[in-house]
């Protein structure tokens, strides 16, 4: 059965892989990116022809509201929401600029709160739904040089668990997926040969592998308030 899925950050990396998998499974997909052109390019690669592209900065409440109004008007109520939009500004805390700190927290944490709040109104009309927020293994374990990024992802865990409790009675499930090293543009500058030594499976993951886990959380009806690590066993070595 075709359902409407909204994927924030759906134009690249994990979000793009999620969008492609959902479309391949026959779902309608609304791909949302900060840049409309990027969202349109991603939609052009999806199977099927009922998908839409939108531009939205998730850290801006008005833009989030307008995005969901447009989705409601053109596509109807949604069943699935995936929050894959994120930024990082890695560096030692002593050298971190306040503007960069605010940008990371507003996009990674506040942005997810805003999209979830807006999506819930639509999901209530559908009498159920599922939300998957994309966190990170460093949100649980921490990592030097990623204090602000880690804080934003750790905040997502508390937010996800609390929201899952709030909306479970309305048949809405909320889960967090925490990837490790995944081969995307955000990890392109990392020294992969060195980092994989700490990964028990001995390699970086692929966005498509994370997408499979996202699909599991979206479609499995008796899982909510959970954190699923997709990290090749990285947490075992940290």
From TrEMBL:
Record GO terms (molecular function): oxidoreductase activity, acting on the CH-OH group of donors, NAD or NADP as acceptor; quinone binding
Pathway the protein acts in: Lipid metabolism; fatty acid biosynthesis
Stretches assigned to the Ketoreductase domain: 3-185
Entry-linked PROSITE patterns: ADH_SHORT
Superkingdom to which the source organism belongs: Eukaryota
Keywords, ordered alphabetically: Fatty acid biosynthesis, Fatty acid metabolism, Lipid biosynthesis, Lipid metabolism, Oxidoreductase
GO biological process: fatty acid biosynthetic process
Family: Belongs to the short-chain dehydrogenases/reductases (SDR) family.
Protein's name according to its UniProt entry: 3-ketoacyl-[acyl-carrier-protein] reductase beta subunit
């Amino acid at each position: 059965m075709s359902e409407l899925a909204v994927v924030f950050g759906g134009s690249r990396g994990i979000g793009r892989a999620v969008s492609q998998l959902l479309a391949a499974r026959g779902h309608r997909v609304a791909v949302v990116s900060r840049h409309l052109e990027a969202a349109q390019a991603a939609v052009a690669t999806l199977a099927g022809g009922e998908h839409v592209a939108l531009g939205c900065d998730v850290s801006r409440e008005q833009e989030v509201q307008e995005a969901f109004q447009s989705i409601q008007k053109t596509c109807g109520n949604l069943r699935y929401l995936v929050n894959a939009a994120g930024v990082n500004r890695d560096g030692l805390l002593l050298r971190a600029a306040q503007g960069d700190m605010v940008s990371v927290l507003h996009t990674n944490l506040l942005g997810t709160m805003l999209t979830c709040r807006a999506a819930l109104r639509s999901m209530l009309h559908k009498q159920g739904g599922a939300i998957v927020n994309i966190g990170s293994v460093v949100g649980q374990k921490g990592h030097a040089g990623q204090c602000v990024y880690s804080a934003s992802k750790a905040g997502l865990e508390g937010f996800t668990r609390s929201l899952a409790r709030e909306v479970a009675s309305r048949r809405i499930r909320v889960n967090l997926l925490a990837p490790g090293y995944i081969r995307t543009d955000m990890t392109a500058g990392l020294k992969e040969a060195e980092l994989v030594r700490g990964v028990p499976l001995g390699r970086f993951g692929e966005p498509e592998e994370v997408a499979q886990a996202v699909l599991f959380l979206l479609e499995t009806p008796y899982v909510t308030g959970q954190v699923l690590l997709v990290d090749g066993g990285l947490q075992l070595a940290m």
